[in-house]
Amino acid sequence: MQEFVGHCKECSKEIYCYDGFISGIVLENQTVICFDCSEEDEIQIK
Question: Which helix (H) or strand (E) holds 40?
Answer without folding.
Answer: helix 35-45
